[in-house]
Amino acid sequence: MWSTQMRCAPSLRRPITSAAASSRLPPCWRGVAAIRRPYIVVTAAFKNSRTEKLRTLLSGDEILLGPCCHDALSAKLIEQAGFPYAFMSGFCTSAARLGAPDTGLISYGEMVDTGRYIYETTRNLPVIGDGDTGYGNAMNVKRTVRGYAQAGFAGILIEDQVAPKSCGHVRGKRVVGREEAVSRIRAAVDARDEGADILIVARTDARQAVSLEEALWRAQAFAEAGADVLFIDALESEEEMRAFTELGGAAAAVPKMANMLEGGGKTPIFRPSELQAMGFKLVAYPLSLLGVSIRAMQDALIGLRKGRVPPVEALGNFADIQAAVGFPEYFEEEQRYAISTPTSVPAALPEEAAPEAVAAEEVAPEAVAAEEVAPEAVAAEEVAPEAVAAEEAAPEAVAAEEAAPDAEAPVVEPEVVAEDRTSTPSDDSATWPLPPESTASTSALYPSVTSSSGSSNSSSSGTGSGADAADDPYYRRNRSLRVRISDVSTGLVKLETRVPAGFLNGLTALIPQVSGFNIEALLEQAMGPEAVRPQAGQPLISIPTGNDMVQIFLE
To answer: In whole angstroms, what is the distance from residue 243 CA to residue 255 CA?
Structure first.
C-alpha cells in the first residue's frame, strides 16, 4: 500500500514572497501574503496507488459515477458492480454505524476506522472520505488529512460549516467566515504537500447558508489555495450548476463534483450525460444504497412479524450471499496455502463422531476383562460354599488337617485375565511364549497366579506375615514390584525397573503398552486375602501386548 520516503514539501522550500502570494491567493488575501512558514519541512511521504488511480481518472474524458458507501460490505458491492470510485458519506456512515443523524455526532476515529475496513475489503477502489469540518481548527484539519491518507482514502472532503455540522440539504445551515474557510483548505493542502498522498475535495455550504455569489467566491478561493476538486452543495437549479462549472481563473481547470441527492433534495436530478455536458467531472449518489437497504429491511421485518420470510427474488439464495461477501475468493486463495497434513480436523457431527465413541467403548471391555476373574476362578469360588459346608460337616477332618501341617493341600489356580489389546489369537488354545527365565505356564493364553499352601502365609520379602498382612491394603500398596518388558520371540529384556505397588497405576505413563488395563485391580486380585502367592521367580501378572510381554514380579 505505502512506500515511505523522506522529502521536502514543495510549497515550503522558501518563504512566500508578495509576488508568489499574489499568484496563489484571491484578491482579498493579498494583504496577508507575507506569511512566514518554515523553509523545509521533512515528513514521511505515503504513496497510495488508489490515489494515483483517481488522479488518472480525473484527467480522462468520462464523468465518474460514485455511489456512496457506508461500510466495508457496501464498498465491496460498489467495486464488484464496476464503479470507478466511491464516496464514503458522513450522512450514510453516521446512519449505519451510529444509527444517528448527520449532525456532527460521528467522530474522526470512527470515520477513519470505517475507512480502514473499506480499504482492506476492496482491491483497488479509490474512495473519497467525508472529512466534514476537519474536526477542529487548521491543525486538526492537517491531522485529519494525514489520518485519512494513512487509512487508505484516495481523497478527503473538507467543508466550511461551523461545528457541529449538519447535512447540506436540511435547515439551519451555518458556515464559518471566509478567512477560516480558506485556512482549512490551505491546511489540508499543506498536509497533502507534506507527504499525505491524498486528493483534497473542497466543499462549501454557503449556497444555503449565505448566497450563490458567496458560494462561487469561496469555490474560487479554494481553487487558488490548491484544492484538487471543487464542490458546492445544494445548488438549486441547472443555471446555478452551470454558473459553478463555468468559473474562470484558477477554478476553471479544477474538476467539479455534483451531488445527486436521491429522494427529494434541493438539487435537481440529472442524467450523467447531462451533468457531463454541464462540465462536471464527478457525481455522487449518496442515498441509493442506504435508502434501498432501509426500505428492504423494513419490508422484511413486516413480513417476519407475520411469519413470512422474504422471497428468494428479494433475498437471493444462500449461494448468492456467500458470493457477495467473498467466500469463493477466500476458498480459492486458501488452496494456495493448503498443507498435506492438517493440524486440526473439522468438528464431526454427532452421528459422525459415533464411530470414535464406539471405538472408545470397544477398548473398555478389555480393561473390564482385566478386572474379571477367569471362569475357572469363578468356578472355584462357586465350589467354595460346598467346601465350607463340607468343613462344617466334618470337624474331625479339620482337626486332622491341623494335626498334620506337613500334609500337602490341593493347589487352586485362579487365573487373572489380561487380554491382549493389540492382537487376538485365532485359536483359543494358542500360547504366548515367555522368556526363558520365566517358570510361568505357557499352556494358556491368560497368565495364572499359583502358589502352594506353604507360601500363602508369608511374603518373599520377609516383611509382614500371615493373613493380617494379606488383608492390609496399606501393606500391599507399600510392597515393591519389579516390572519387566521382554520380547516374546527372542526373550530379550527391553526394560526392567522397580516401583512401589501403590504407584503401579501410573505405570501407563512409562509403559504405554499397558494403557487400558486396570493394574491396581489386577494387583488386588493377585495379592488380596483370597489370592495364593506365586512361586519363586513366577510373575504375579503377565500381560501380552503384541510382540512384548509385560510381567510384574513381587519383590
So the answer is: 14
> Count of CB atoms within 10 A of residue 145's CB?
25
Q: What is the pLDDT of residues 389-430, one digit of tens each?
A: 444 444 454 444 554 444 444 444 444 444 444 444 444 444
Calpha distance 485→551 (Å, rounded):
6
Find, among 328, 42, 356, 313, the residue nearest to 194 by Cα. Answer: 42
CA dihedral over 464, 466, 469, 470, signed as positive or negative: positive
Q: Are 555 and 541 in contact (CB under 8 A)?
A: no
State the pLDDT at residue 345.
Answer: 57
443: pLDDT strictly greater than 70: no
Average pLDDT, rounded, for the chain: 76
- In this structure, the number of other CB atoms found within 10 A of the CB of residue 429 comes to 8
Residue 1 CA to residue 19 CA, distance in Å, equals 39
CA-to-CA dists, residue 330 to 68, 82, 244, 327, angstroms = 26, 20, 46, 5
pTM above 0.70, yes or no: no
The full set of domains in the chain, from first to last, is 42-286 (3.20.20.60), 288-333 (no CATH), 423-555 (no CATH)
DSSP state of 85: -
Strand-pairing partners, residue 484, are 496, 551
Spatial distance between the Cα atoms of 51 and 58, rounded to a whole number of angstroms: 11
Radius of gyration in angstroms for the set of CA atoms belonging to the chain, rounded to a whole number: 46
pLDDT value for 54: 98
Answer yes or no: are the C-beta atoms of 507 and 499 closer than 8 Å. yes
